[in-house]
Amino acid sequence: MSPSIKSETNFFIAPNDAGNKEVTWRKGQKGLWKFYSVGDVLKNGASFIKQTGVGGAKPNYNQEQDFKVEIVGSVKELTSASGILRCSKSLTC
Fold this sequence. Notes:
By secondary structure, the protein is mainly beta. The chain has one domain. Helices cover 4% and strands 17% of the residues. GO terms for molecular function: pectate lyase activity.
């Protein structure tokens, strides 16, 4: 189906495992895949397998669905409290 995937202003940190640094993964080679990275931060050797362009994928958003993308520098701050919920019968999540 020749998909286009656009990653915009995301923060990727690769694990220390040398064989596990690719951000994108695809099963099979059918169709023409296009990957675009715009303003992403790639740490610890993270990379896209084959970036075929910069900024070319256009989302199918209507005007009401369109949104402003936050700057990538604030991702760590915005997600600093994220993670697994620690719930139990005695604690309310």
